[in-house]
Specification:
Strand content: 15-25%
Number of helices: 41
Largest sheet: 5 strands, parallel
Structural class: alpha+beta
Shape: elongated
Oligomer: single chain
Number of strands: 53
Strand order of the largest sheet: 2-3-4-1-5
Length: 1431
């Protein structure tokens, strides 16, 4: 906006100059006098040469860099002016060159001064604009090199006109003209003053300001009188120059097209009139004093006139700071013209294309509405620093980045805003982004580069088309690395080289909430500036507090090449104090003139000095003090100063804290209603702890306050808060204020204004839930089945149906909950939300594209509920799983929650309580899962097979390495892709995080190991030393060493910091896997030589070699306690070894293909393995039992890893995906189906050690299976009819089977031999069971009897009769003293196993009875047996 205004002003001024300037002295020949344009006379050619020569001669004496560049460009283009052009045009050009040459001569004679520099800068800017238009008519090749001459007469004529206007504007009297060194008499000078004032009177005739002309006339009259009485040359010269400055400012432009001033301008003119009248009064006093004493001393006159000079100067400063009349008239009156110009500059297609660059943060620009309460540096303050910054901008050889750091309150943002405005006024500002924790879109880097690209496209037209072409939605939402490359670097490189610098300003980098993103941003900017340096003078100014992560990045090797550094807190305190003094003097005088009277003897200089001392170098103190004092100047100044020496506090901001206390104590009184004071504390607390600022109206609704109450409550807080009308939010002026309020040591625990964060978070959490429970409804956005992408006027729909306070509640309720205390009321509201409105909440998140944040909110809330044992924990966990599993569908539109997600959710708490929402939706008739699948989500992004996976130590990220030559970093909570690391030239085989979380190592087929910065993704170093593919890499526990294994059959150990190779050892074949022991003293390696080797990490000595696998060893891992080693092999087994002895402890069989990866859980209790059979298996590390099998992928599983807390498993596959599994999810899953029997299977039993399964069938056989693999071990045949029941002996050595042929067979399990046959039943045997000690066998039959047999001899010991129908089941108690039997007679009978006596009979309406005794616990279970009977 400001750039457009300035350009419009220049055009108006040029038009005025051309219309009012005299014709050139050399007359343009008529057509009849001229020779044809094709032939120019020698005289005319020499004239052109004279002008050109004069310009070159005066050019060499120019000391102003910008003007020097501009004239050089002008001389350059004059060289390509076609000499065959029209003679009259060339003569006009020569005349203008002579005038311009004279102007250059005057600049060189004036030397360097603020006035001459400003005039030279303006002239340079005008010439640059003129030449930019001319260059467009010079033919160029594809690289931008000129290949022709300027042959367009019309273009040359336009060039001449613009040069004439620029020179004329330069020759106007300047407001900063250095006073003449030639002395004139006082009367002559005073006459000139009167003349100037008369001109002013004439020039203000058109200004609609009542009294202004009369006020200036009165001042003229008084000065005329003084002129006759005094003889003080120097003083009157000064007064004259200051009044000339006033004239220049108040003289209005006569070409605005409108004589009506706007309201703001009228007020300033009225204020100016009042102040001039006050100066006139003071001048009259001087006149009367001189009339009374004609011999008044020179010194007295000098002092009096000096006072008038100072008064006029202050009037001008204030008026100019608020905005000059001429600028305001143009801004206020030519709005339509500016819009017209904008339309001409940007086509409608370009406007649409630029507006499509999303997501942006338009309020992050330095002059956006959110910055209206912010200030600029006062004139004559920060002079040296601003000069340093602008010199850095203008220096083409300077470092491209400027880092301005400073502690809180030192004025960093004010300086950045001032620099941005100065650069914007000169056309050098490419973009600005002011970070702020107070606003969602300004506290992260998510919208940074789209915002910068948008601003550059608007301010630098030549780059516009390239940015528009690059700004695809997938680019604008990509990782930062891709955004800066596509949106900034690419377009700038594609544009012809620039002659002027382009500056980007990033303010308050410390306000960016993610430290990792900050460091990544600085690395990316450094790289971009390096790559653009030869093409464009791009500069980046960065400001922020000297936080450790920012300072560390600027100290990183290489950053010193690209960055200049200035520390505000290191500037001489006396310089800062002088600036604060000027700031206070200016604003306090302004307060005096507006609130008191210009003649009031206030403020006292001693008081101002005391305030400067109290500020102690903090501009924030001065700012707050001024805002506090201005409402009651006399009283509040005294109050403020009276507390200056009362504090004994020893903290750094003691004077600032005293100031805050005085301001806050003045906001209430002892007579105030305590309830109102408490309400004020609630409002203030909400302003301080809310994550996103809210407007007064939204705050009232959120806090359930009466309408229009917040703004009156905060009427005394305008010195601390920016308070505007809705929809603009309430903002804290400076972060030091909430810091003060929430620190009980500083604000005082018992003070009314102390803010207890936990108390206010608890209140806001409760209110957020209440509002959501009250307002959320199904399809409250009224979009039905419309997809999000199909909704027109998206923001309008949201604003219509979702109020700001409800939107805040939906986005931040969990943020407040995790900081809240638990209470019954809060728990009840959360329960209501979870059981009634949680799906409606997901509708809002889907519509505003915040589902990823929704996952984080649910995780936070679930953790809080678990900590406080809240009953909402289960449904919050379900909702999180629901969102992770169906996120892709739900993101398409709210309707898919009910159409594509909820009907297919497994049976869970969420599904149960939300049954009412399924009305009208599809219904799953069968096949619905019972419980959540262990798979949390699947990450897709790699373009080739994924070879390796690793969790970061803090569990927040996952790294994966792929055959696509990249390393991908993922968000472990949401599954979002964070960044991609590129640098390898072949596939990545292995990934490892350093234990300190600072680095990532990747091993590749390109024979290198790359070390990356885990926070930024920056490549730190490459380790070169292997001669073939590197297959595995690992860090030592202290992150100091790296070990790698390679196809070159070696294991290499490296220094992680330097990259130096320390030692190398080897196998006799390819090394596939390497790992450090938990204490870092040993390294284990697995190889295709079928062995696992244990090495001394320091000496490289082979300690032992583990042999036992029959094929390649693919993966090895140490247990956390260092006692065990696990290995996975191509022989399809997982082996566990004793790390001390090297003995093989157990071998786990279960995979049916190559075992590619193994890992221990963090507690060492479980082992996870991944296999080419596409599954992930989990094993008990102590017993070797298979705990679960996950049907993981659609292709080979290449790598598996546990999360640091053991709650998740990650697996990667050739199917290009990364899968994340929940280890806590336990649900029955079909592991395998055993198919061998040819008829109905009637009975199945596990062996006591869980390694075998026996099954009996009507096909007359008994089958024994391997429980882990499902392989058939042997088949037992011998019966002539079907098998009804099987039972293992307690030691697992024998197997009993009961048959329809009335017999019982006893088999040797190992050999399958028939040991004996038991005969005694008269009908089919339905059930058999061994006693716990294995000495007896019980059988039940269709003959209604139970028979007890001697298991060793097969003798019949006793027959138990008592049932009236078929006996279907028998079982021994866990101690062997009783037998229970179930029968079709609807009874369960209990017998004494020794005597056979009937002890008890249970009768009921049971049609069929089966009995299970828990004396037969699941294999591997630690559960104690019991006598409970389950029917």
């Amino acid at each position: 906006m400001r750039r457009r205004i300035r350009k419009l002003v220049d055009k108006v001024d040029n038009a005025i100059s051309r219309s009012s300037s005299p014709a050139p002295t050399k007359q343009t020949p008529t057509a009849t006098e001229n020779t044809p344009s094709a032939s120019i006379t020698v005289q005319e050619q020499r004239t052109l040469g004279d002008g050109h020569t004069a310009l070159k001669e005066n050019y060499v004496s120019i000391q102003h860099k910008l003007l020097e560049k501009s004239i050089a460009k002008l001389i350059d283009i004059l060289d390509v002016v076609d000499s065959t052009l029209d003679a009259a045009t060339l003569i006009r050009l020569d005349d203008e060159l002579k005038l311009l040459s004279d102007a250059l001569l005057s600049i060189s004679q004036e030397g360097t001064s603020p006035g001459s520099d400003d005039r030279a800068g303006t002239l340079a800017s005008d010439i640059d604009r003129t030449l930019d238009k001319a260059y467009a008519h010079v033919p160029q090749d594809s690289s931008g090199r000129r290949i022709g001459t300027l042959t367009d007469t019309k273009a040359l004529s336009s060039l001449i006109d613009d040069l004439h206007a620029a020179t004329e504007f330069f020759n106007k009297p300047s407001v900063l003209t250095t006073q003449s060194t030639t002395k004139t008499t006082t009367r002559a000078i005073s006459g000139r003053v009167v003349g100037v004032l008369k001109i002013v009177k004439e020039s203000v005739d058109g200004v609609p300001a009542i009294g202004l002309k009369a006020a200036i006339g009165g001042l003229v009259a008084v000065l005329e009188a003084i002129n006759k009485l005094v003889d003080n040359d120097d003083d009157l010269i000064k007064l004259m120059n200051h009044i000339k400055r006033l004239v220049e400012i108040v003289t209005p432009s006569t070409d605005t097209g409108d004589d009506q001033s706007d309201e703001a301008l009228q007020k300033r003119i009225d204020d100016l009139t009042t102040e001039i009248q006050a100066i006139t009064t003071e001048a009259e006093k001087l006149q009367h004093q001189n009339m009374g004493n004609r011999f008044m001393g020179h010194a007295d006159n000098a002092s009096a006139i000096s006072g008038l000079v100072k008064a006029v100067d202050q009037v001008v400063d204030r008026f100019q700071l608020a905005g000059g009349i001429r600028m305001e008239r143009i801004v206020g009156k030519l709005g339509e013209r500016m819009e017209s110009m904008e339309t001409k500059v940007l086509s409608e297609a370009e406007k649409r294309a630029l507006n499509a660059i999303q997501p942006r943060a338009d309020n992050a620009k330095y002059d956006s509405h959110s910055q209206t309460s912010s200030s600029f540096c006062l004139e004559n303050t920060r002079v040296a620093l601003l000069e340093e910054i602008f010199n850095w901008v203008n220096d083409p050889q300077g470092r491209p980045m400027f880092w301005l750091s400073g502690m809180a309150g030192t004025g960093k943002s004010t300086i950045a805003r001032t620099v941005a405005k100065g650069l914007d006024d000169r056309g050098l500002l490419g973009a600005s982004f002011f970070f702020s924790r107070d606003e969602e879109h300004r506290r992260s880097t998510a919208r940074l580069f789209p915002t910068i690209a948008y601003q550059i496209a608007r301010s630098v037209p030549s780059v516009r088309e390239h940015i528009i072409a690059a700004a695809e939605p997938d680019v604008c939402n990509a990782m930062l690395q891709k955004q800066i490359g596509k949106l900034i670097v690419g377009p700038l490189k594609a544009t012809a080289a620039f002659t002027s610098p382009i500056v980007i300003i990033l303010d308050a980098l410390d306000e960016c909430e993610n430290e990792n993103h900050v460091t990544e941003l600085l690395v990316l900017l450094s790289s971009a500036l390096h790559s653009l340096r030869s093409h464009i003078d791009l500069k980046v100014m960065v400001t922020g507090r000297p936080e450790m992560h920012i300072q560390g990045e600027f100290k990183r090797p290489g950053m010193d090449v690209v960055s200049s550094i200035a520390h505000l807190h290191d500037i001489d305190k006396s310089i800062v104090s002088d600036d604060i003094l000027r700031y206070l003097q200016y604003h306090l005088v302004e307060i005096r003139n507006k609130v008191l009277s210009p003649t009031t003897n206030w403020p006292q200089q001693s008081d101002v000095n005391a305030l400067v001392q109290m500020a102690d170098g903090l501009f924030i103190f001065a700012s707050v003090a001024v805002n506090y004092i201005k409402h009651q100047p006399l009283v509040r100044m005294e109050t403020l100063l009276s507390g200056a020496g009362h504090s004994k506090a020893q903290y750094a901001f003691k004077h600032l804290d005293i100031l805050y206390k005085q301001v806050l104590n003045s906001c209430t009184s002892a007579d105030d209603d305590p309830e109102e004071v408490q309400e004020l504390n609630i409002v203030l607390g909400a302003i301080v702890v809310v994550l996103d600022p809210l407007s007064t109206q939204a705050l009232e609704l959120l806090l359930e306050l009466k309408p229009d109450t917040v703004k009156p409550q905060l009427k005394s807080f305008y010195s601390l808060l920016s308070i505007q009308d809705p929809p603009y939010p309430i903002r804290v002026f400076h972060k030091s204020f909430p810091d003060f309020l929430m620190d009980e040591q500083r604000s005082g625990r018992d003070s009314w204004f102390h803010i207890d964060p936990k108390q206010h978070h608890t209140r806001l959490a409760l209110l957020c839930l209440k509002h959501m429970n009250l307002l959320l409804k199904r399809d409250m956005l009224k979009i039905g089945n419309t997809l999000n992408s199909e909704v027109e006027n998206h923001d309008d729909v949201l604003n219509k149906w979702v109020s700001p306070h409800l939107l805040y509640a939906c986005q931040q309720w969990a943020f407040h909950i995790i900081h809240a205390d638990h209470s019954k009321e809060l728990g009840d509201e959360l329960d209501h939300f979870c059981t009634t409105n949680i799906l409606y909440w997901l509708e809002i998140l889907s519509f505003i594209d915040k589902l990823g944040e929704g996952v984080r909110l649910l995780i936070k809330a679930h953790e809080w509920c678990k900590m406080h044992k809240s009953r909402s924990a289960s449904i919050l966990n379900d909702c999180c799983r629901f969102l992770l599993y169906f996120r892709e569908a739900i993101s398409q539109g709210p309707c898919h929650i009910y159409q594509s997600a909820l009907p297919f959710a497994p049976e869970c708490t969420l599904f149960s309580v939300m049954q009412k929402e399924l009305k009208g939706s599809v219904k799953v008739q069968c096949g619905q899962e019972r419980g959540w699948n262990p798979k949390l989500f699947q990450l897709r992004g790699h373009t080739n097979g994924v070879q390796s996976v690793a969790f970061s130590p803090d569990r927040t990220q996952i790294a994966s390495g792929s055959d696509d030559q990249t390393v991908a970093i993922w968000d472990a909570q949401t599954g979002d892709l964070v960044r991609i690391l590129e640098g390898h030239t072949e596939g990545v085989n292995s990934i490892a995080f350093s234990p300190n979380g600072m680095q990532i190592a990747s091993a590749s087929c390109d024979m290198t190991v790359s070390i990356w910065d885990a926070q930024t993704g920056n490549l730190l170093r490459k380790l070169k030393g292997h001669t073939l593919s590197v297959n595995s890499v690992a860090f030592s526990p202290d992150s100091a060493l790296i070990v790698s294994g390679s196809d070159d059959q070696t294991v290499a150990i490296w220094d992680a910091q330097t990259g130096n190779l320390l030692r190398k050892v080897g196998h006799t074949n390819i090394v596939t896997s390497v790992v450090f022991s938990a204490d870092g003293t040993q390294v284990a390696s697995g190889s295709w030589d079928k062995t696992v080797a244990i090495w001394d990490a320091e000496l490289g000595k082979l300690l032992k070699k583990l042999e036992g696998h029959t094929d390649n060893v693919n993966s090895v891992a140490f247990s956390p306690d260092r006692t065990l080693i696990v290995s996975g092999s191509k022989d399809q087994t997982v082996a566990i070894w004793d790390a001390q002895t090297g003995n093989l402890l157990r071998r786990m069989e279960g995979h049916i293909d190559n075992v590619s990866s193994v890992a221990f859980s963090p507690d060492g209790k479980q082992i996870v393995s991944g296999s080419a059979d596409q599954t992930v298996a989990s094993w008990d590390a102590q017993t070797g039992n298979l705990l679960r099998r996950l049907d993981a992928h659609a292709d080979d599983v290449n790598s598996v890893a546990f999360s640091p807390d053991g709650t998740q498993i990650a697996s990667v596959s050739h199917d290009r995906t990364v899968a994340i599994w929940d280890t806590q999810t336990v649900k029955p899953r079909l592991l395998r189906q055993l198919e061998e029997h040819r008829h109905v299977v009637t009975s199945v039993k596990f062996s006591p050690d869980g390694t075998k399964i026996a099954s009996g069938s009507y096909d007359e056989t008994v089958a024994i299976w391997n429980a882990q693999t499902g392989n058939l071990v042997r088949k037992l045949e011998g019966h002539t009819e079907g098998v009804n029941s099987v039972a293992f002996s307690p030691d697992g050595a024998q197997l009993a089977s009961g048959y329809c042929d009335r017999t019982i067979f006893i088999w040797d399990v190992q050999t399958g031999n028939l040991l004996r046959k038991l005969q005694g039943h008269t009908m089919s045997v339905n059930s058999v069971a061994f006693s716990p000690d294995g000495t007896q066998i019980a059988s039940g039959s269709e003959d209604k009897n139970i028979v007890i047999w001697d298991a060793q001899t097969g003798n019949l010991l006793r027959r138990l009769g008592g049932h009236r129908d078929i006996v279907h089941s028998v079982v021994f108690s866990h101690d062997g003293t009783q037998i229970a039997s179930g029968s079709c007679d609807k009874t369960v009978a209990f017998w004494d196993a020794q005597t056979g006596n009937l002890l008890q009979k249970l009768e009921g309406q049971i049609l069929y009875t089966g009995i299970v005794n828990s004396s037969d616990p699941p294999p591997g279970s630690t559960q104690a047996p019991s006598d409970r009977l389950y029917l």
